[in-house]
Amino acid sequence: MYVAPTLENLLAARAASPAPFLVTDPEGPVLSYVWLAAAVADWSAAFDRAGLGAGGRLALVLAPGPAWTVAYLAALNRGLLLAALDPAAPPSGSG
Asked: This protein's superkingdom (predicted)?
């Protein structure tokens, strides 16, 4: 019987691979799969502490970037229903 891999298992496998880097930018931080796996686990735990479990609703209001990606993956990991909102968008009905 086939069992689909979990996000946690996929990140752990990638972190243990010979090429563990997710992003390397000479002018920015080096982000590794080890960092990503730990950050997703941290956000997932924060969602758990907030009482957000599978089927819970989350409005994700973050600018694009590493934090957004981590929060998005953690929300998927916890089975949350997600609405991604752009904090730079003008308010509804403002024009």
From this structure: Bacteria
